[in-house]
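Chapter summary example.
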Amino acid sequence: MTTPTPPAAPVGRRERKKAATRRALADAALDLFLARGYDAVTLHEIAEAADVSTTTLLKHFPGKEALVFDEDADQEAGLVAAVRDRAPGATVLDALCAHVKSVRLRPADSDPRYADFFDLVANTPALGDYAHRMWMRHQGALARAIADDAGAPPGDPRTAALARFVLETSALAHRAEDPERAVDAAFDLLEHGWNGTAARESDAGR
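The structure predicted for these 206 residues follows.
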């Protein structure tokens, strides 16, 4: 018997105000970064554009990089859900491959500013490094989700390794001429192993 899900707690006025301030700051920062370049914009200018003090900005974001990437909790939840809530018949790697492509290789027309945002991150080393560090922080949560699904013990080195390799496919794709093909190739290797992949390619070439 399924236990009824309790209704979500109402969001209070204070929480709504905090969320609105965070969104205003993130939007102002992105507008300024796209218009003038990341390095040319100061925290004070971002705060002014959002009509708050620099002190208030720093209460919400620890630095400039964090203003660009405000989806950390959502990213971790999405990775875990890709494993736990995958479609019947889909393997863990099938689900994670689709998820990585959907959130890390979104088409440029998904948002009018996405192409500009992607170029900003790709051409700003500080942002690229920060984005990679933040993405890799989800390794532990993803490893636990994989271990739970497989019935493996906590701390199993295989699930930790698989989680790390899955997350690293994003960086591989962003350096590739054909990002989607790079992700598919990486997940094919994870699914079948080097020996299995090499054997299939050898048979295809005969």
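To summarize the output: The two ends are 55 Å apart (CA to CA).
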